[in-house]
Amino acid sequence: MADPRIRQFHIKTGVTKRCCKEVLSYQKEAEQIQQKIKKMQDEGTDVYYIKKQDLLLQETQNVIPDCQKRLNAAYQDLTTLIETEKELEESEVYKAAQEVVKETAPYIN
Predict the structure, then answer these.
(1) Least packed by Cβ within 10 Å: which of 16, 26, 67, 92?
(2) Residue 20, CA distances (Å) to 6, 39, 62 in order
(3) 97 with 12: CB under 8 angstroms?
(4) Residue 42 pLDDT
């Protein structure tokens, strides 16, 4: 039977990757919507459509803090797991987890 600690590494690594991807995706979406609103304003588009895009932007920006909070928690869980399971240092999942921590570190608040 597989070591349950290895399973935890797989789970926590996956969660951290997914949360980071979500945060980046929502930030990119918000940026695209802002550009679209600016373009619509420059072109003189009807105010109704601009307001609809603004509402969409607000919804996207409201989701980002929650995603960031989940990313921070997942990152903390993974780093704690890495620190407590030093005896698995030679395993592939341990090395993969360390790599995810390095990749995700710039996006942690």
Answers:
(1) 92
(2) 21, 29, 16
(3) yes
(4) 94
